[in-house]
Fold adenosylhomocysteine nucleosidase.
Amino acid sequence: MTLGIVAALHEEIADLLAEMAPGARVEHVGMRDYHVGRLHGQGCVIVLARVGKVAAAATATALIHRFGVEQIVFTGVAGGLAHGLNVGDVVVADSLVQHDMDASPLFPRHEIPLLGRAAFSADVALRDALAKAARDWLAQHMASEVRPEWLSALHLGAARVHVGQIASGDRFVSSAQEVARLREALPNALAVEMEGAAVAQVCHEYGVPFAVMRTLSDAADDTAHVDFPRFLRDVASHYSHGILRQFLSAR
């Protein structure tokens, strides 16, 4: 079974690409490099989708059609929406919704026209396996793989894993006002990002199991533009690499 691993930014998959590089081949399709090889005994195709819903949907479609992947996992960072979540926590999606989809009054807000649904559910087995891998990595490996000064400087504290809804949209949410509006419109959403729901819709339409895992890099508020670059540079790749290594090793 071949697994597609996708991220929006290079830092989110840099360590995975480096680990798979020996023996891997690279195919250039649609302005993207698809790295085809094996990780921990598992056939994988790793690709940088770039940012946004269209980019993510195009990448997921190519993974399915061109490379025949049978499962897709999207990894990366997100901003926290729900109260009580902290930087460094991990959110594994149980469902995803496009917060900027609004074809009203023809269709209810957030509903995808002609599909009759707003939210797309992640594959239960993949979701649970990713959540377990995240918990195991945080408990057993994070302290040794993420440098202590980074943990302290970014105030990560005791990171936790949450399973719940993730909202996606073509906008970097960076103000308290935007967060408040999203909380009101989507009270069940734990985190916000820019790609996951698009991948979820493509996988739903093609019948491909998928999961989305996000590390909270900021609070998606007025501090988002300050916190995000540092977290991406110093921490995100360690999270993605460590958790997916744990996930693949357990399969």
Remarks:
- The domain at 76-250 is CATH 3.40.50.1580 (Rossmann fold).
- The mean pLDDT is 93.
- The beta strands are 2-7, 25-29, 32-39, 42-48, 71-80, 90-98, 119-121, 161-168, 189-193, 210-218.
